[in-house]
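Task: sequence design from structure.
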């Protein structure tokens, strides 16, 4: 599809080889998904990971859009009869979007401007004459252009300068000079609107602020842009104007005549009125895009860590959505997450029926053989936890606090209504809390990722970019873990490689009509699940207790024959291979390399045989907060257990059990320089922190991990 130049450009941007680009694009164009390519086509891509493959997609799309834009520009200029071989060559060989627009600018259809009006008034010849910088009287020459539309010398000269200003604005070299100054030396300035000072208190740091643009971190940029959008701040991006004007004078002024002074005036006007606003808009966009990209990456990494949080697994769970006046909603779930019953208890004010609540919980734990209790961490969460922990159960029951962010969004969603049409939102929310404990990934995929509460400025960034990145993360996590096809919800199946909403629903329908899938091969009977979809999805779907043990592994059906050959050569069964490490050690991987399955695939197969269907997630750990309930209970110097709830570029937020997360600034993460908080902490990590400041007025808790 593309010439060698395009492939080289893509390869250079991503830092991979020309050959890797070609093979990856071939697979993508054939309909292969990123998870499938990274897992099962390592030979073709020479081991590219998901991030690199996704980048190939994104960069290719960028160049495809650029190619379309170039074609449009060439066609437009051709229609004007102004396309020269030199200009066409410049456009064809341009691979920078901004430079391309600079080339197009002189030919871009314009609305009426001051320069076009001046041209209509017959002043273009005068602007040409001034540009020659002849040592003659400018006013004398200008007097020749007086007419009924321009009646004074001043108006004539102003019109000529307008034409010159527009030419300078459309000059690619001039724009490059200004752009270079913005890139290297621009600063960002903010001021508060005086009439809004009282309302804008949260932007106090930016009331009178400036910083070099290239040093301004993404979170600060997004905060300033938000302040501007809300009407509190005036934001400007600019370099030193005098330096820019000097450089433009050097470019356009060669003599020292009266005409030269007219050009200098035109340059100043051009910069103030045309060039500076135009290039500032470019750099606003560039800065915003860069800040968006960084914030989205932070959000995506947080989401990945949250989705891959340790699951409790298939247990009988009692889940509680705590509340004060409205009571605590209690549900019991079986090992598959199916709802067994729901109740309401009122252990808190105003009813304060603690004994009744304890009796109800005890009865439900006994009746439904409950193995674990999940308590939402929202309003009344700690108070409810204290009551539950005080109950002397007859058997061991694990107790967990569960982050309930987004549970209310799920409970009012179409997915929840489909699952529980006869239950109200409070019951659905409690079910979600319980299922999150059992399998965070399976439950959280039902919720819009923006509502889960692990991002920063998620409503300020480019929403399509954000959705695309988060969808890619969810897809990656789902396929990394694998999906039990006989218990998975439609939401979970939708993210399996090669499926999507329609086929996911068809799988559910088939399961409802025919019972559990007995083999991966049975997938081919599902409506609209053709050979390509089967190829893409089969390796990521699991069937526990299948007749063929490989159906519950990450070994792709296309490689079953390789495993069977291994077993045959060792005169044993596939099950023997899985159960006997000494047998696997006898296998020479190189012996089984074929045209389609290279050494990377054989190596992956052997790793999978060692732990078929293994869950890559860690095991869950129990956790208890210290005996503090509210910020007023905290004092400087306290060392407390906490859980990391959010990670940003400037640090992390930690829940210490007081209904308000504290912040560990990046400078307080370790006794060394930390470039990225992810080097030190992970989402849901349990750790010890020290209180270093409590600001009750501003509702801020500062924490430290140093020397703890």
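Answer:
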């Amino acid at each position: 599809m593309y010439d060698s130049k395009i492939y080289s450009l893509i390869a250079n941007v991503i830092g991979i080889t020309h050959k890797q680009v070609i093979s990856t694009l071939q697979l993508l164009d054939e309909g292969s998904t990123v998870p499938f390519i990274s897992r099962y086509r390592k030979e073709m891509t020479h081991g590219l990971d998901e991030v690199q493959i996704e980048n190939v997609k994104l960069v290719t799309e960028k160049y495809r859009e650029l190619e379309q834009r170039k074609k449009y520009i060439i066609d437009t200029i051709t229609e004007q009869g102004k396309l020269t071989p030199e200009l066409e060559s410049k456009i064809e060989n341009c691979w920078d979007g901004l430079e391309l627009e600079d080339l197009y600018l002189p030919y871009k259809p314009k609305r009426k401007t001051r320069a076009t009006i001046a041209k209509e008034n017959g002043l273009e010849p005068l602007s040409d004459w001034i540009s020659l910088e002849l040592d003659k009287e400018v006013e004398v020459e200008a007097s020749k252009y007086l007419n009924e539309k321009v009646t004074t010398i001043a108006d004539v000269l102003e019109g000529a300068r307008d034409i010159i200003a527009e030419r300078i604005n459309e000059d690619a070299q001039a724009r490059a000079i200004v752009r270079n100054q913005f890139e290297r030396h621009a600063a960002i300035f903010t001021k508060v609107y005086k009439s809004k000072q009282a309302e804008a208190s949260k932007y106090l740091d930016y009331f009178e602020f400036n910083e070099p643009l290239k040093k301004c971190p993404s979170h600060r940029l997004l905060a300033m842009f938000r302040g501007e959008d809300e009407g509190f701040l005036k934001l400007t991006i600019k370099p030193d104007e005098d330096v820019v004007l000097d450089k433009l004078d050097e470019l356009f002024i060669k003599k020292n005549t009266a005409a030269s002074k007219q050009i200098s005036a035109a340059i100043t006007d051009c910069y103030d009125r045309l060039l500076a606003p135009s290039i500032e808009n470019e750099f606003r966009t560039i800065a915003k895009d860069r800040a968006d990209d960084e914030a989205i990456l932070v959000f995506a990494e947080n989401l990945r860590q949250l989705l891959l949080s340790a699951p409790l697994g298939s247990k009988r769970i009692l889940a509680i959505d705590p509340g004060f006046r409205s009571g605590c909603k209690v549900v019991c779930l079986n090992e598959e997450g199916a709802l067994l019953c729901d109740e309401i208890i009122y252990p808190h004010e105003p009813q304060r029926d603690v004994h009744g609540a304890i009796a109800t919980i005890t009865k439900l734990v006994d009746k439904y053989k409950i193995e674990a209790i999940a308590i939402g961490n929202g309003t009344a969460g700690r108070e409810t936890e204290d009551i539950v922990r005080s109950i002397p159960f007859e058997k061991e029951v694990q107790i967990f606090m569960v982050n309930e962010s987004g549970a209310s969004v799920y409970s009012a969603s179409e997915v929840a209504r489909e699952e529980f049409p006869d239950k109200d939102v409070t019951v659905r929310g409690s079910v979600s809390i319980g299922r999150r404990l059992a399998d965070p990934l399976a439950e959280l995929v039902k919720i819009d990722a923006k509502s889960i509460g692990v991002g920063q400025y998620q409503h300020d960034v480019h929403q399509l970019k954000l959705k695309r990145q988060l969808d890619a993360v969810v897809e990656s996590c789902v396929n990394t873990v694998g999906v039990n096809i006989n218990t998975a919800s439609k939401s979970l199946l939708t993210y399996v490689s090669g499926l999507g909403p329609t086929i996911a629903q068809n799988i559910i329908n088939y399961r409802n009509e025919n019972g559990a899938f007995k083999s991966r091969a049975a997938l081919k009977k599902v409506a609209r699940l053709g050979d390509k979809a089967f190829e893409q999805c089969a390796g990521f779907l699991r069937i526990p207790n299948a007749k063929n043990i490989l159906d519950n592994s990450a070994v792709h059906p296309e490689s079953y024959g390789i495993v069977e050959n291994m077993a045959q050569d060792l005169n044993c069964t596939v099950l023997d291979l899985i159960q006997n490490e000494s047998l696997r050690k006898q296998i020479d991987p190189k012996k089984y390399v074929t045209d389609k399955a290279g050494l990377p695939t054989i190596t992956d197969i052997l790793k999978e045989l060692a732990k078929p269907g293994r869950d890559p997630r860690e095991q869950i750990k129990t956790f208890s907060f210290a005996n503090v309930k509210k910020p007023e209970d905290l004092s400087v110097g306290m060392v407390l257990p906490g859980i990391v709830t959010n990670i940003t570029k400037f640090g992390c937020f930690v829940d210490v059990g007081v209904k308000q997360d504290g912040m560990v600034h990046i400078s307080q993460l370790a006794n060394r320089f930390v470039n990225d908080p992810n080097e030190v902490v992970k989402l849901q990590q349990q750790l010890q922190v020290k209180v270093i400041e409590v600001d009750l007025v501003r509702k801020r808790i500062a924490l430290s991990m140093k020397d703890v």
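The two ends are 58 Å apart (CA to CA).
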